[in-house]
Amino acid sequence: MAEAILQVSGLVKHYPLTQGILFKKQVGAVKAVDGVDFELARGETLGIVGESGCGKSTVAKMLVNLEKPTAGEIRYKGDDIGKLSGKALRSVRRNIQMVFQDPYTSLNPRMTVGDIIGEPYEIHPEVAPKGDRRQKVQELLDVVGLNPEYINRYPHQFSGGQRQRIGIARGLALRPEIIVADEPVSALDVSVQAQVINLMDRLQSEFELSYIFIAHDLSIVRHISDRVGVMYLGRIVETGKDAEIYDHATHPYTQALLSAVPVPDPEARERRERIILAGDVPSPTNIPSGCRFRTRCWKAQERCALEVPLLAVPAEFRDVSGPAAHDSACHFAEETVVVPAEETDADGNGNGNGPG
Ligand SMILES: Nc1ncnc2c1ncn2[C@@H]1O[C@H](COP(=O)(O)OP(=O)(O)O)[C@@H](O)[C@H]1O
Ligand code: SF4
Ligand SMILES: [Mg+2]
């Protein structure tokens, strides 16, 4: 693997739950993020996927310093950013930028596009001296495929897709190395989603960016991710290279998510397994013992309530070097063909032990 530009270990964010008005007493915690580890290599895209409420945005906010971790480390090029201050911290903040989910609410409606994109220069004037800013903003508009003459327009004069281009231009203004994109296309029409993803793909090569790309649906990150991490209730439960996750998932939760991915070919759609998860996602204030997925897992056994499965290559795959040998936090990890392989990848590696 190329040099790691970002290393996250043991990342935790617990929001205290308090009771009482005068004398606030902590009665519990919302365990939004509960021990997350991953690495991001330079130039790589890591997709983070999971249902709404599993802690994706909280991870994103900690990466860009909008939230302070309860515990854990975020290392940028080896430096623990929680221990940096002054100039060194400013430089890290400049290099990790965020693109937000909803382009309708994340752009200030009273500011012109020029002021929105140029706003980061107010905090980091060293990147663009005042006299150069207008030209820099116009260059950025051009880079994201918008007419540079629109610089004095307001957000409401743009479509959703165009607004997200503005959000991306702002994310690029400080020439960061890492972009954390929190569901950047979830609020957009399906027809526009691909355009924005293609734009991000192009910008990645043009500006040598590394991406954390967050989505609630595995199908969205498929074409842009080199690796994928699947989150459930504040933790990553399975992670691997693109093909390892999409074609050789071993964790029941990933398999359930895959079974919900749209399959364009009607014949393949017929043959695909549908896994319907029982029950709702448990509250992050009350995480199940042992495996946190066990209350919805069709394979759960007694051991699952007693022992926390670690995110590692499961024992049964440790001696084989195939695509199933990737990190999966399950005591009973096994491959199951959920989505039939496409003709180009008809290696039929599944064992047919689907859910009953
Ligand atoms: N400031 C906060 N205070 C209390 N709970 C929060 C706060 N922010 C998020 N949460 C809770 O943390 C969990 C994870 O939220 P979030 O990171 O937004 O998930 P996702 O982005 O995956 O939908 C949710 O249960 C959410 O309600
Ligand atoms: S450890 Fe048990 S409950 Fe958890 S995913 Fe695996 S089989 Fe299901
Ligand atoms: Mg979110």
Automatic annotation (TrEMBL):
<dbReference type="GO" id="GO:0005524">
    <property type="term" value="F:ATP binding"/>
</dbReference>
<comment type="similarity">
    <text>Belongs to the ABC transporter superfamily.</text>
</comment>
<dbReference type="InterPro" id="IPR027417">
    <property type="entry name" value="P-loop_NTPase"/>
</dbReference>
<dbReference type="InterPro" id="IPR003439">
    <property type="entry name" value="ABC_transporter-like_ATP-bd"/>
</dbReference>
<keyword id="KW-0813">Transport</keyword>
<dbReference type="InterPro" id="IPR013563">
    <property type="entry name" value="Oligopep_ABC_C"/>
</dbReference>
<dbReference type="InterPro" id="IPR017871">
    <property type="entry name" value="ABC_transporter-like_CS"/>
</dbReference>
<protein>
    <submittedName>
        <fullName>Dipeptide ABC transporter ATP-binding protein</fullName>
    </submittedName>
</protein>
<keyword id="KW-0547">Nucleotide-binding</keyword>
<dbReference type="Pfam" id="PF08352">
    <property type="entry name" value="oligo_HPY"/>
</dbReference>
<dbReference type="Pfam" id="PF00005">
    <property type="entry name" value="ABC_tran"/>
</dbReference>
<dbReference type="InterPro" id="IPR050319">
    <property type="entry name" value="ABC_transp_ATP-bind"/>
</dbReference>
<dbReference type="InterPro" id="IPR003593">
    <property type="entry name" value="AAA+_ATPase"/>
</dbReference>
<keyword id="KW-0067">ATP-binding</keyword>
<feature type="domain" description="ABC transporter">
    <location>
        <begin position="6"/>
        <end position="258"/>
    </location>
</feature>
